Amino acid sequence: MSLKEMIEFWKKGVDEAQQGRHSEAIKSFLDMPEPGARIYFNIANMYVCLGNIEEAEKSLNVCVKKDPNLAIGYFQRGCLHIVNKKYREAICDFDLAIKNLRGNLLIDYKQLGLIYKLYTAEVLYNKAYCLWQINERSESKRLLNEALASAAECSESRHRVVSTALDQIKRGEDFLPYRLPKTAQVFVPPRSKTDVVNNIDFLGKAKVVSSVVDQDDFTGFVGAQKNKESRSPSPAVRKDLPPHSSITRSKSSEPPPKPNPPTTRKYSPPSAKDAKMRPPKPSMAPPSFRHPSRSPNLSPSSEHSPTNSRSPSPYGASAMTIKVHYTTTRAIRVASSISYQKLVHLICRKFDKSDNSITLWFKCSDTGDRIQLTDEKTLVSALIIPLTESASSIINLLIYYCLD
User: Fold this and answer.
1) Domain 319-403 class?
2) Cα separation, 128 vs 91, whole angstroms
3) Which ranges are annotated Basic and acidic residues under compositional bias (predicted)?
4) What is the CATH number of domain 3-191?
5) Any bridge partners for residue 325, and if so which?
């Protein structure tokens, strides 16, 4: 169960107790999971109101067990022992109550939710009553005088019973014990927690302070106002405003324009004049039948383009990639028909060397032998094998060694 639900059950039980529905209040308190000491104190007081002293005593036993420092719990149980004439048990409870008062004149339980102040004078007074009932008169008189001195420091009107009891003893009469008033029946939940349960309207309701239109009390959004105006007649416009003022909410008196009626179109067959002006439809015949003089396998660009004057490469590829290994490895993209001198020139530029200052070697991939490249013939013999074995025009199988 969430904290909100626990507070709701607690508040419900308090409301029922204040309305005098004690049985319903007990049920509401017991519906809470694992009720605390204050809840069992409330249950005990509900049983007292119903006259069930035995169940009230059981509830107070649980109350002081859950909170051994709750002095008012011991005091209330001692009062129940007085009703059952268990004076010695009552004296023990009053001693525990005095112990938990810790030498203070009073304990204010308002912060815990109980509108009551428990005074030391009241506990001493009830203990003196129990001693008087078991014929310990001298000790009873001593406690009454001590209670009178403690009550004098508090100046509470209800403590007049102490002086009245002393007068009754002098006359040889018995005196009555002190009991909790009805205002000290239940612990109520803290207000800080009940405010969370109750919905609080922090903003309040909107109010129209000033408006240019008489009898205008609208405080919502403009869209809602427009919908409202469209369903009801518009309010009257103030006469003291100029006729073309933009700060008005009245609508124009002119009726809205009527929508154009839908038109119908009739089908009429095309005339001979229209047929002549229309362009002819494109032929649906295949391209080979449209241009019989042109071969279907030849494109227009290939038909009219001039023949390539450059002879095809003897290696079967138009371009290739050469990897040159020196201080670093660099790749050069060249044409497959490149000459030896041009290849040397490109490699020298690649490595920032002067022309004819390097010697090229080709390493055969099969035997591992190195072949020195000196002219066109050795270059062709080095390129012919890898280029014929590969169907691609980009060759990455050639390795050259560049030496000074």
Assistant:
1) alpha beta
2) 9
3) 226-242
4) 1.25.40.10
5) 329, 401
Is residue 176 within 8 Å of residue 162, measured between CB atoms? no
- Whole-model pTM: value is 0.50
* Rounded Cα distance, 333 and 317, in Å: 13
Q: Per residue of the chain (404 residues), what is the pLDDT tens digit?
A: 677 778 888 888 898 988 889 999 999 999 888 889 999 999 999 999 998 999 999 999 999 999 999 999 999 999 999 999 999 999 999 999 999 999 999 999 998 888 889 999 999 999 999 999 998 989 999 999 999 999 888 878 888 888 899 998 888 888 889 887 766 678 988 877 776 666 666 677 777 666 666 676 666 656 655 566 666 555 555 555 555 444 444 444 556 666 666 555 555 566 655 555 655 555 454 444 444 444 444 444 444 444 444 444 444 456 778 888 877 888 888 887 788 888 888 888 888 888 777 788 777 666 667 777 788 877 777 776 554 444 444 443 444 555 55
Q: Where are the domains of the chain?
A: 3-191, 319-403
Crossing angle of helices 87-101 and 71-83, rounded to 10°: 160
Determine the Cα–Cα distance for residues 336 and 313; give it in Å rounded to an integer. Answer: 7
Structure-token pair, residue 48: 């007292």
Using an 8 Å Cβ cutoff, are 243 and 265 in contact? Answer: no
